[in-house]
Amino acid sequence: MTQPGTASPEEIARFTAMADAWWDPTGKFKPLHKFNPVRIDFMRRHFAEVFGRDAALERPFEGLTLLDVGSGGGLLSEPLAAMGFTVTGIDAGEKNVKIASLHAEKTGANVTYRVASPEQLDPSEMFDVVLCMEVVEHVTDVDLFLRAAGAHLKPGGVFVGATMNRTPKAWLLAVVGAEYVLRWLPRGTHDWHKFVRPSEFSRILGTAGIKTRRFVGVAYNPISDEWRETDSLDVNYLVVGDKAA
């Protein structure tokens, strides 16, 4: 197994142990399956606006390339490929990559998966979109990780990240609530001390030449059993930026 500089062996082992469950919507990754629709809808709308595409089309992003950093089992890579992106998914877990590759082969998704972290990619590999979704809280060096990922964003390209804010509310909901009370996730999945504040995320992106344009909160509605966009950044949030052309 590849052991990149920013990858945590403990985190790789944790997600490798759950890898077989990636595509089970009722299994250990159920929260991500529930989370996906709001993230995908947001990205479709935002990318259409930035790249001047018609979001109503089935495949509005034909001809554009996308790097999914920390792609796991491909839960985001495949839907984005279905929108027309040529997707490269990288993950530090070899088993994750194997499962994602097998699933893409079955569905015919236009995704290429590789065992790697962003600092291992060839400097010449550049993409129109770079994603770092729910991964920065699992790496050993957030600054190095995001600078390495940002180095692969083309001028004029779009960066989208997602993580959890380091607030007492996030500890209560994302750690105590999700792992110990509701048992949505295995205990120990998240370390609150590794959560990243929006100001920290924005600062690091700036060192990679990426200007933060907006933050969007995402919150769970227990009545509808759905996630929705919100103005609150207290727990889960998305960060969107771009690199000057």
UniProtKB/TrEMBL annotation:
Gene Ontology biological process terms from the UniProt entry: methylation
Enzyme class (EC, first level): transferase
Pathway: Cofactor biosynthesis; ubiquinone biosynthesis
HAMAP family: UbiG (MF_00472)
Transferase found in the keyword field: yes
EC number, UniProt record: 2.1.1.222, 2.1.1.64
Provenance organism: Magnetospirillum fulvum MGU-K5
Descriptive protein name: Ubiquinone biosynthesis O-methyltransferase
